[in-house]
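Dear U.,

Please find below the material for section 3 of the report. The protein was modelled together with zinc ion; I have listed the sequence and SMILES used, followed by the predicted complex structure.
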Amino acid sequence: MNMKSIFGLFSCFFLFVFCVSPAGAEEYGKPKLYRLDCGSIEVLNLNVFSDTDQYVGQTKTLVSSCYLINAGTNWLLWDTGLPSEIAKEEDGQKNESFHLKVTKTIVEQLDSIGLVPEDITHVAISHGHFDHTGNIEAFPNATIIMQQAEYDLFTKYTDIAKANHFNDKTIEFFSKKENQAKVKPITKDYDFFGNGRVKAISLPGHTPGHMALKIDLVNSGTVILSGDQWHFIENRVSNGVPSLNSDRVQTLASSDRLNKLVQNTGAKLIIQHEPTHVELLPAFPEFLD
Ligand SMILES: [Zn+2]
């Protein structure tokens, strides 16, 4: 090989590495994962998380968690927590099953790292329950990503949604054409940024369009945010199915899929309502990358 062809080869390599590849896979940069504090849920009747009467007479304190993922110029919120108006009430809100509290709103937390609601480019919800969709209206520029089956509950099967822990206010939000225009309904798994690093994993059963989030971090490895596939550690160990789930068979199949995915990828699994899991992630505004 003469000098000219060696130079030519080197030029091609240079062109690929420095000119072609940055516009492709690395456009979205190394993802960063932040966990937000989205409140606490004292479960006054833990048996709502068992369709086999496993927790009769028991109570438990869980957390409501939300997550912020940065990828280049994109800011993705995964779940939007309990409604922020709960923060205005000193002792939160209480019904026969849950005592809900919020101490700091998502918008207040974003402000502490210099972000305003308009900076959020994507909002994705694991599912439509009230404690995962509380502030969905607060991010005017965001594309809202959810499974088609969940979107159908918000827009077509609203009576079923209302009877199954969806918030009336959120159903009303999605009844408006201008808000429907912001929604990107998806089916099955979904690669958010086209580089395989941030993916929704379809896990129907808790609700018809329930999903988890898998994030492949460059330095910290793979993290999987469970959605509500399980609500606390013991719920996973006993392969339990909450009585409030939409489909038992789908739930068990989804548990099997998620367990195998965690095992095969060596992922750190964060059960989103489990306080001891959420504490494994650094407290905001620290992050994993
Ligand atoms: Zn749920």
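For the text of the report, you could mention the following: Residues 127, 129, 206, 228 surround zinc ion (CB under 6 Å).

Regards,
Y.
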